[in-house]
Specification:
Elements (H helix, E strand, L loop, with lengths): L16 H16 L22 H6 L5
Amino acid sequence: MGDAWQRFTREVAAKDETDARHTLLSDLGSKHRIPRKLVRMKTVAAIRPDEVTDDVVRHRLGGAK
């Protein structure tokens, strides 16, 4: 890994784009010890509840499996 950038996609439950960005940065920092200044977000997009694939996010949105 080292100096290489790694692309990824993550689903989070959030009220708005700012909250989604904060939640993602907080999760990455606590789980992987990545400083916020090293994370680049290319896009943040809302998805419909029926498009959610993450079970934790689906549960937070109040949906069933």
